[in-house]
Amino acid sequence: MAKRLQKARRAFDIKDIDMAKKAHSPELIKKQMQENEQHVSTGQYLGEFVYGAIDGTITTFAVVAGAEGASLNPGIVVVLGFANLLADGFSMASGNFLSERTQRDFIEKERKREEWEIEHVPEGETQEIKEIFLRKGFKGKDLENAVKIITSNKKVWVDTMMADELGLLESKKSPWRTSLATYFGFLLIGVIPLLAYVLAYFFDFFSQNTFPIAVVMTFMALFVIGVIKRYVTKSSLWKSAIETVLIGGLAAAIAYYVGFFLAWVAGLGGI
């Protein structure tokens, strides 16, 4: 399935009709349909990883930039940075988990409601199916046949109501894996802005140029995230990378000058 979809997506990207036709051959389609419907590829969690990585990098560097703008001691920067990295990352992953679980529970409840209504109010549910297909352009015999076919299979009937009436699509993603992908991305990439401050304890070069190195490392991390994001969105490589870098840079600049301003207001000359 993954190879067929990859080929189909590639065909769309380069507008190759022959490749698209090959990706939609009866053999490949039949093989895909025979695969386990519960299977969720690791690549489907890449979006959560990118989401966590972007947030982790930007928020951690915002702490670093704000502390630098306030002329805080490097040791305090490390403490604040890692506290933010671990706590904010966990908070974000927890929120992601609860959001996915809540959505899944809500969809499950709505499915049970539709099943109950089909069992106890079949006439009303049949009329809803008729209205759905009427809006799709079905008329006369075609409309009657479509309604008859859909309502002859309870699962198909419920699936149609879920998608077309309620606009609810059931996700095969695991809330646990979703939250872990988010947290892993947050930690793995979000730690990069802090590496210069950690390495400053061991190398003179880093201790003498800590913040400038942190800036360079952060923008490199944002660029890499942009490249990965392009893999998910299939947008222009440079557009995705530059967009990510600019957004991260703006957040960092705001944090730096807010820290500088507040330190000036408080009369701090460094701690």
Structure described in brief:
82% of the residues lie in helices and 0% in strands. It has helices at 2-14, 17-23, 26-34, 46-69, 74-120, 122-135, 140-151, 154-165, 175-190, 192-199, 204-208, 210-233, 237-266.
Walk me through what this model shows.
The protein is mostly helical. It contains 13 helices and no strands. The chain has helices at residues 2-14, 17-23, 26-34, 46-69, 74-120, 122-135, 140-151, 154-165, 175-190, 192-199, 204-208, 210-233, 237-266. Helices cover 82% and strands 0% of the residues. The termini are far apart. It is elongated and about 80 Å long.
List keywords for this structure.
single chain, 271 residues, mainly alpha, 13 helices
Helical amount among residues, as a percent range? over 70%
Low-confidence stretches: 36-40
How does the overall form come out from the CA principal axes?
A: elongated
Helix run count: 13
SSE string = HHHHHHHHHHHHH
- Whole-Å distance between the termini? 58 Å
Percent strand equals under 5%
Helix and strand composition category: mainly alpha
Oligomer: single chain
Beta strand count: 0
Largest sheet features: none
What is the typical, i.e. mean, pLDDT? Answer: 80
Strands, helices and their partners?
Elements: H1 2-14, H2 17-23, H3 26-34, H4 46-69, H5 74-120, H6 122-135, H7 140-151, H8 154-165, H9 175-190, H10 192-199, H11 204-208, H12 210-233, H13 237-266
Helix pairs in contact: 1-2, 4-5, 4-9, 4-12, 4-13, 5-6, 5-8, 5-9, 6-7, 10-12, 12-13
